[in-house]
Design goal:
The complex is a heterodimer of chains A (321) and B (325). Chain A is an all-alpha fold and 321 residues long. Chain A contains 12 helices and 2 strands; from the N terminus they run ααααββαααααααα. Chain A has helices spanning 11-24, 34-43, 46-63, 65-68, 110-146, 148-162, 166-177, 181-208, 211-218, 223-260, 271-282, 288-315, and strands at 90-91, 98-99. Chain A is flat, with a radius of gyration of 28 Å. By secondary structure, chain B is mainly alpha-helical. Chain B contains 12 helices and 2 strands. A two-stranded antiparallel ribbon of chain B has the order 1-2. Chain B is globular and about 85 Å long. In chain B, 37% of the residues are buried. Classes of the chains: A mainly alpha (321), B mainly alpha (325). At the A-B interface, helix 7, helix 10, helix 11 and helix 12 of A face helix 1, helix 6, helix 7, helix 10 and helix 11 of B.
Chain lengths: 321, 325
């Protein structure tokens, strides 16, 4: 009696059938990449999206300031002294532009001044944070990697630096360095690098104990390569979060220094400078000169804080879903 | 414990030494203080006389050596501007700053702890979201701008309080205080509220986090099981346990407030030592700047020490170690 095929199947044939059945099914969606997960979780929070929108608006206003401002606030020749201290919504003496946010003591259109001021504030803070992040990363990684007296020395310097209030250090530094955008950036870098160094060391100590570092060392790769190509990328996520939040600190610090009169020069007013300029007119009731630059500053800082806060929640491994 | 304290003090001494040297050098490079001191009509001879009277004709290292010799005897030189003792000038202004900082910190704690506990107890309530949004604003808004806006509303707009100054003060022992007079309080309330908004925001967050961490703990459950009133559990059991992070943060922030007084005092023209520092920096009054920094380093180190010791008293599990601190 012939054995009919298809009734009895060998285990091998069964396995083949199972594979075919699997192949016939619609393919599973590809696993979510980390970036997709980040985007999905980020968009899930309305506050974070609001923060991002605020941040993008501030950056947009800063980048496109020359094109969207009604007036070039740096062009002194263009200013009409009769237009000084006009309240919001008034038109200029010659009727050419409307000052939606009013004018300041030098007859500058406040809206334009705010756009340009955002520019100075954002450039100073982002450049200084980026540089401080780079320096801090290198110091922190080196301290964690080499350990011993190098670690002890570097971290003692960091401790001493951090035991000082940032505002005092920056104030003294600027007293010594003098005025200027570049000087403010240098002072902010010196004030901020230590935070990053401490955070980078913490992250690097965790990474250093992992097997891939040992593997890299076993392959007798040079320490530069192990540090920069292997450990650094793995230490970055928490540092980027700190950098985001620190950006808000940097903006606030810069505006405070400019307010005290030791920050950026008068020719390149930042938001803090605009607020300081309005201070003298406030007691006579010209509130808008200080008020609107402050609102712009506050919105930018709140936006950055909201984004940074939520990024921290997402990237925190304790909260991973 | 003793080794620990000694170690910290030694570290402070080192910082003071390094910093005074750096500031000495820095301010020397920046400019000639004589140009600030002498009147515009002064002849070169007059200038030379001023230079000699302050020892500025000597090379820098000698100036520093002389400064050090006097500094170990707690004499930090005379102000270039007024000729008074630099440390004396600062100490004269210190009560105003400390008074402001104490009132502000007290306000922040009294406001921050209850609100933070409320937010921790009712994480989903609408009021909690309001509190947390407020706290984000509190530490996001630049503090000097908050001060300006408070002046605008309450001093210029409503005219309830003066915009600047200290008001009437009363001598209380060696201290000149505003807290003791009604007029002083009216002047004090705006600057103190300005500082308190930022600090309360921080304390709210710390208190909320600590409350949420402590609520599911066994000792709370046990206290409830014993049948204690909920209010008593909160006020006695919970509060005692969340006090540690609050004390730490408040202590460290107190140092920040004193250092940040530079800004608040400038906004409100409060005659404290922060305003003095800013004026001295602008006029290149080196002895005052150096003396201020030495004082503030000492102050911050002592504050850290006190917080650490308080910490070990509040939490018997914490032991201060002499070796690694």
């Amino acid at each position: 009696m012939p054995v009919s095929r298809g009734v009895v199947t060998t285990p091998f044939e069964a396995a083949i059938d199972a594979v075919r059945a699997l192949e016939a099914e619609p393919p599973l969606p590809p696993p979510e990449t980390p970036w997709q997960r980040l985007r999905r979780e980020f968009l899930a929070s309305r506050l974070a999206v609001l923060g991002l929108v605020l941040l993008l608006l501030a950056v947009g206003a800063a980048v496109f300031a020359p094109w969207i401002s009604p007036q070039d606030p740096y062009d002194i020749g263009n200013l009409d002294i009769f237009d000084s201290k006009l309240p919001p919504g008034s038109t200029s003496a010659d009727g050419s532009i409307t000052y939606w946010l009013g004018t300041d003591g030098q007859a500058r259109d406040l809206l334009s001044a705010i756009f340009y001021g955002l520019r100075t504030s954002l450039v100073v803070s982002s450049v200084s944070v980026a540089a401080a992040l780079a320096i801090g990363c290198l110091v922190g990684l080196a301290a964690a990697y080499f350990g011993g007296w190098i670690d002890a020395l570097l971290m003692r310097i960091v401790d001493i630096q951090l035991s000082f209030p940032a505002i005092l250090v920056a104030l003294i530094l600027l007293a010594v360095l003098g005025k200027g955008v570049d000087k403010v950036i240098i002072a902010l870098i010196i004030v901020q690098w230590a935070y990053f160094a401490r955070a980078a060391r913490g992250a690097a100590l965790v990474e250093r104990a992992k097997e891939y570092v040992e593997a890299a060392q076993c392959m007798s790769l040079g320490w530069r390569r192990v540090l920069l190509r292997h450990m650094l990328p793995n230490c970055m996520p928490p540092l980027i979060v700190i950098a985001t939040i620190d950006l808000a600190h940097a903006i606030a610090l810069e505006s405070t220094l400019s307010f005290l009169g030791v920050g950026v020069p008068v020719t390149e007013p930042s938001l803090g400078m605009l607020i300081a300029n309005g201070y003298e007119f406030m007691l006579s009731g010209h509130y808008w000169i200080s008020f609107f630059p402050g609102i712009a500053l506050a919105l930018a800082i709140v936006g950055i804080n909201l984004v940074g806060d939520h990024l921290r929640d997402i990237l925190n491994p304790h909260n991973a879903h | 414990m003793l080794t620990y304290i000694l170690r910290r003090l030694l570290q402070a001494l080192l910082v003071m030494l390094v910093m005074s040297g750096l500031v000495f050098l820095g301010l020397y490079v920046v400019g000639d203080p004589v140009s600030m001191m002498a009147s515009p009509e002064a002849t070169e001879l007059d200038r030379e006389a001023i230079r000699q009277s302050f020892g500025l004709d000597k090379p820098l290292w000698q100036q520093y050596a002389i400064f050090m010799q006097h500094a170990v005897q707690l004499d930090f030189g005379k102000s270039f501007l007024t000729g008074q003792s630099a440390m004396g000038l600062i100490l004269e202004r210190m009560p105003a700053t400390l008074e402001l900082a104490c009132v502000a910190m007290l306000l922040a704690v009294l406001l921050g702890v209850p609100l933070g506990m409320w937010a921790g107890l009712k994480p989903r309530a609408l009021s909690t979201r309001g509190i947390m949004t407020g706290s984000v604003l509190g530490f996001s808004l630049p503090n000097f701008w908050v001060g300006l806006m408070l002046i605008m509303v309450f001093a210029v707009g409503l005219g309830w309080v003066p915009a600047s100054g200290r008001g009437d003060t009363v001598l209380f022992g060696p201290l000149d205080l505003s807290v003791l007079t009604l007029d002083g309080w009216r002047s004090l309330v705006l600057p103190a509220a300005t500082i308190a908004t930022a600090k309360a925001a921080l304390i709210i967050r710390v208190t909320r986090a600590a409350t949420r961490e402590s609520l599911p703990m066994d000792y709370i459950k046990f206290a409830r099981a014993k049948g204690l009133a909920w209010g008593r559990i909160l006020r006695v059991h919970l509060l005692k346990n969340i006090l540690i992070p609050i004390v730490t943060i408040s202590g460290l922030e107190f140092g920040q407030v004193v250092a940040f007084a530079v800004v608040t005092e400038t906004v409100f023209a409060w005659p404290g030592m922060g305003k003095l520092l800013l004026d001295s920096i602008i006029t290149l009054d080196r002895p005052v700047v150096v003396a201020y920094l030495i004082l503030i380093v000492f102050f911050l180190v002592m504050l850290n020490l006190v917080v650490d010791i308080l910490y070990s008293i509040l939490d018997p599990r914490v032991r201060l170690q002499g070796g690694k601190a």
